[in-house]
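User: Show me sequence and structure for the first protein, then do the same for the second.

Assistant: Starting with the first protein.
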Amino acid sequence: MGASVSTTDFSARDGFEWWAQMIDEAVMQVSITSPYADGFQATTTAIDLGDTDLATFAFSPLSARRDAAQIRRGDPEDYFLFLVHGSSIGMEQCRNNSLLRVGDLAVFDSSHPLSSEFRDEGRLPEVSLLRLPRARIPLPQDRMDRLLSTALPSRTGSGALLASYLNGLRAQARGCDATELRRLGGVASDLVAAFLSAAGDSPAPLPAETRKQVLRARIRAFVDHNLSDPELGPAVIAAHHHISVRLLHLLFREEPETVGAMIRRLRLERSRADLADPRLGRGGIGEIAGRWGFRHQADFSRAFRRAYGMAPSDYRRESRDPAGTPKGPARTVSAAGPSYGEKVRASR
């Protein structure tokens, strides 16, 4: 689920002007210049995650600045987490200067002046940008200011987990409905809080309830990345996180579903998305079931019928319109204000 737009919908010069306006409205007000303004290329895909949003931007090389006057005119008071996919990025904020390369993570703050250079290295700059309301990151402001515009560890530990989770979210969001996306957005926020708390020389302590939320987020991320393993269950999850099975169940006691129910729901949702995907052609029902951790096709078919009221084969047939494209889940509109996707669509 997400909104996608591109400069191919505009003339060469109008594309750059549209892009600059869209960034002002969907992210924050900045001044943008580019040597490629006359033939500017850009695409944006935005995913509404409830309190947070994840957008992927690919665009011609450019420079972006945000100054004090722009901050005074409008400040969303958000943090933004960068995950770099394309050419390198030079960034400066709060006297911190970094050169970010593919796979790097970094954070910037809408409330401080910012300077960034998206470099020309023979391929388009591309980034994923996770917006985080400041209240979702329970760390002292001075601690956060020291982390701004620095290349944060993304190849090991919680940084690697966070980067992998965001990449997985980009790939799988189309198969999720609005309720699940809000839940996944909460997981992303908790992972970022844990990651930033551990960054630097002296990890900042998190409140006890936040530590529980972070552990639940790590568990959900582990489950999401291991759904294909038929052995995945409470014992495997508890052992991986060095806790007892009893503690695992206690952590999820006040959640809307048990650990086992979460695994079953996610497997069914991934299978349902594959059944509706015309790119997967006529792959067998058993093949799809096995891909998501079901040992036996009969067990999968029974679980699918209980969850969705029809057999998997019937769902695959009925989920496509006459042109052969998936109908996709219905979208629930959040009442919490416009998301990236809504702002992107409105800017067209």
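Switching to the second protein now.
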Amino acid sequence: MIGKRLSHFRILAKIGEGGMGVVYKAEDLRLRRAVALKILPGEALADGERRVRFLREARAAAAVTHPNIATIHEVDEAEGILFIAMEHIEGKTLRSLIRGNPLPVREALRIAVEIAEGLTRAHQARVIHRDLKPGNIMVTDDGHVKVLDFGLAKLLEGEDPSSSERSRLGTISGERTREGTVLGTPSYMSPEQSRGQSVDGRSDLFAFGIVLYEMVTGRAPFEGPSPMDTVTAILHEAPVPASEVNGEVPPELDRILGKCLEKNPADRYQD
């Protein structure tokens, strides 16, 4: 794909690859700007469920406008290839910044505030992320946070978004993840998500708590030798207080983390 043209984009370099597609750096030949193109691999186009999820990613993300969420420029299909053109971000993933070592508590809290602000805006638009993790969070070269990849996002039941958001979002009835389908990354799943139950914004808060815990300790609060063991820990075990892992963590932050990581959604912050 490198050097090829797709619609009005010239593909320059591969950035990364995940379960929902390959991401390339590209040039928008009309507007002369760098973008990130997320492309669903051609061999997966016949997979109807994956195609629906890919489209849902674009529609869910396009419903949300906020400085701490990566902007979606357009969604299109060319030469049988589905793609999303999104804001190109210069920076590092939170995963690469942590690398098994805690961040300074003050810096971790600054990043956490910006993540929370982006999630709050998404939840106001009745959109949940469903796969929040350090690999889906970018810290730009000037220090700002961008939440990426709403690939597993779900439009919540209830009132529609505002008319301006609805015009971008379109109709997605029938595209919601059904109860009993488990999507996401095991280490960052809420208990209800790991059981395949329906989820809401409080599931994102659980994942947010895991991310914040990892930022201040350098490790996840729930770990096991296998994904199943990790899920078992999430379901049944209490995490070691972050202050016992890192003595710089204040008691009040322990309390906040404990609230975010409650097993029962009703016991967490209510968004």
